[in-house]
Amino acid sequence: MSFGSRAHVAMQAYGPLCVGIDPHSHLLEQWGLEDSIDGLDRFAATCVEAFAGKVAFVKPQSAFFERFGAAGVAILERTLQDLRHTGTLTILDVKRGDIGSTAGAYADAYLDDDAPMAADAITVSPYLGFGSLTPFFAAAEKNDAGVFVLAFTSNPEAIRFQTATASSGMSVGDEVLVELGHANEGADPMGSFGAVIGATVAHLDTQRLGFNGPILVPGFGAQGGTVDDLRRLFGDVTDQIIPSTSRDVLAKGPDVATLRAAAAATNDSLSLL
Ligand SMILES: O=C(O)c1cc(=O)[nH]c(=O)n1[C@@H]1O[C@H](COP(=O)(O)O)[C@@H](O)[C@H]1O
């Protein structure tokens, strides 16, 4: 089944929430863990225990694993493998993007079903041109995986760049959404090629949101995005959105039941959308 279909099923079963696994050093400390490989290992294993089979999506943030070098990356690999086939889909947050031939190697690393680091979906950056992402789309299609392309990100610096006018006359971010519409054409109930749009964005042209794909919405929670913001920004397409929060839920750890309850409460708050 395609990633878009699997995402649709998971959202129906568990609600739309994505919980990010972002092992910040201050969270490790807050959980009574050392800022070390052993601490990272315990943190990631606790997240898997808390969220596997309980939420639709989990999004490990690669940077927090990479900071420990190869040993950290090995823990990321294990985390992704432990989440496979639990009903919870993995979105590996790596924000990759490069010239096409190199993009192909990144696609092999993360989207090939047999790769040690295989995820259900990854985040990618379109700033080498939307066309440079073709190898990611091809690999995703072949492996029933998904791709989330940065469109309007949650950080305050983004707006000057992503709302700039491209040579097409559209903003850079809108061009990403239009291209995603082409990539998802004909998919039912939802395509596998998504956008990343922050919950903190001031304004969105809702006409551009009908691109028939999932919308990953970080910035919800710790960065200030609220359920009201989701309603304001995504009005007619709230059934496409995957609100994502990391610190807001993770701060409730390390107790597994408390983490689970925090994710469930957040999912409940989203049922009002
Ligand atoms: O691609 C992302 O997930 C992402 C895009 C974006 O626009 N903003 C954003 O915060 N993120 C990621 O989402 C997570 C947000 O974490 P919290 O602010 O703790 O919920 C981090 O891992 C960010 O790297």
UniProtKB/TrEMBL annotation:
Catalyzed chemical reaction(s): orotidine 5'-phosphate + H(+) = UMP + CO2
Enzyme Commission number(s) from the entry: 4.1.1.23
Membership in a protein family: Belongs to the OMP decarboxylase family. Type 2 subfamily.
Biological process (GO), any one: 'de novo' pyrimidine nucleobase biosynthetic process
Protein's UniProt name: Orotidine 5'-phosphate decarboxylase
Classification lineage: Bacteria, Bacillati, Actinomycetota, Actinomycetes, Propionibacteriales
Entry keyword set: Decarboxylase, Lyase, Pyrimidine biosynthesis
Species name: Aeromicrobium flavum
Transmembrane segments: none
